[in-house]
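Quick question: who can interpret this fold?

. . .
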Amino acid sequence: MITIISFIARLLNNKTRDKRFIKRLATLLLIITGLFSSVYAVEVISSSEKPILIPLPKEVKWGEGQFIVDSKTVIGVGSSMDEKRIGEFLQQELKDIYGLNLEIVSGKRLYREKKTILIGKPENNPLVNKLCQERNIFLTEKKIGREGYVLLVTPKEVMVTGNESQGIYWGIQTLIQLLNSTGEKKIVIPTVKICDWPDFSFRGVHLHFRGVKDNSFAKNLIKNVLAKYKINTVVLQIEESLAWRSHPELGGSLTPESLSEIVKIAKNNFIEVIPEIHSACALQSGFRKGFHLDLAEEPSPPYVNYCFSNPKSYKILFELNDEVIEIFRPFGGFRYFHIGHDEITLRGGKPGSCPRCKATGKTPAQLFAEDVKKHYEYWKKKGVKVMMWHDMLVKGAGTGHGGPPFNIADSLPLIPRDIVICDWHYGPECPSQIEYFQKKGFKEVIGCTWRNPYNIWNFTNKAKRANALGMLNTNWVPAKSGHFWGFFHIIYHADCTWNSGRRPPSELPYDPAEEYRIAMERKPVKKEDAGLQFTVDLSPYCNRSLKDNYKFSGWAARGPKYDLKTFPTGRIRLKGILFDIAKGEKNVVMLKGTLIPNLPKKVRGIKIGKKAKKLIFLHSCAWPTAEKKLVGYYRIFYKNGGTKKIAIPLRYGYEIGSYSSFWGIKKAKLVWRGKMESGDSIGIYAFIWNNPFPEQIIEKIDFLGMETPASPALFAITGIKP
């Protein structure tokens, strides 16, 4: 190799630039290319790729070089309290995640010659103002608005600025996603200029607190997920969960103090909080316990709604409202209050059926409209706007619950037009009714989704075209740790509502489940030394090709349009992990499944012969199966009389998933994204197993399958030395 390099140097020093020289140099380069590809193998090194930013910014221009953050770097903040608080937030993130404790400076202590991360509005931070002038950066309200920001990274400085504090905070969240640890308490940030702003002014998440006793999960979710991905509103549904002081018989175990802490966390992260009491059904929990049955519309279960004609109903409801007001008072109150009012008849409610209501001579629709108006007038007097669900105001299939026999939708002409309508649809096609309500005179309409990725994608795009106020992602599993995995779709919702129409579900460069897990766990960054990685030669055990054919004898037996021939082989780096994927006709160890029966159910004795603190399994399934289904497991054998063996279960959707899965593998890491010949997107995941006995030599591994359609497949094993 040294001889070749010396020869190149002599050629380059040659003053003669004739055709013979060019020909000789080109021939030599071809030889070197072939030599490197055959001996050293071309590596796909993801660390050189640009960071994946969520949400996707509007305008990004990458530069050359990088800014290095170390102990000498300072955070230079503007003069406002918000800007100082944002600087403290960044300071704490760098300390907690990267182990760096940077000094915060302001006023006369701002020095341009130091390596500085500048934060603030131009009018509050003189160095931000100077840098904006030098770089011709203009913060026009028309372009980036109140929540937009400009993020500039050069080798000399970093600047985050915007028109308002909230936008600057969103810019800091983007900056944090750009950080890349090099170890030794140093961080590199690629040079870049980002000009960014949201598509919607309302980007909300709805959280249900039924059965929630403490606030720890909700606070973690708000701080580490909602704020990180620029969600600006959270709706807290609390009628059955809050420990009401005026009516404890109606509530749960979540104390007012716990709710206050949730509100404080949200406010500190520039997130607006909207309380919700599903008012029409707010007394239902009391009815079920035998309380206030004189106010129940129905004389027997399910006791859905209260009597709309009884003044005592509103006395109780407004006392609950008064408690909410007091809880929020230290935080400046709230602009909106959500009264719910969905699915009344769907749950078995019979509005207008009690003797008192019948005696009024009014239709159920008229009584419903009067009920809504009573809540509306209560909140209007307090300067608060009302929100409500849409479904009782429309008839027809899907979410039209206002049809016969009660015809509640006939109340629509009587509903005040400045109520905010929350139009919810959860199917992938989501037949939006935003424009319907706009035509009926409602000024503000919000689209509402749940967890289906195509529901989020399609509805957000429709809402953008309809110029809706925004989008609200609803969550109907309680906001507590027992439902940890019920919320990862929020990240895709955040991506779509900030920058709609850019990242369809099948082409995401990330897995929302993985991003969610990392955000919620919030662990300090530990840079794995690439030199400690070793690979395992699987070629003696490979029994299947990544390629398929029309005899259906390869990969998933679906034909060449649906195989993995685009997946790289050889020694490659994926997301910083070195893998050795067998070349040749057979590149994968695949197990028998009900759809591919001509394969072994077990592959035993995969030789390791080394100590490892971690093993990284690059694997997939040829076919999907049910969530949490056990599709196989690895059995680890230790050498020299140590621990005999350990079984690692492979549950579908957790440790392993299908190559055609584009999101939701909860305990594995997405390391490669590509496309099949058919054009469909594919993804390959790595599962990282922490060895409880790193001091013992792992002798071998058995790969065993179960009787499922999945056919688990192993591409590579990489170890991390102790």
In short: The radius of gyration is 30 Å. The chain has four domains: 2-40, 49-196, 202-232+272-318+330-519, 530-720. Residues 2-40 form one domain.
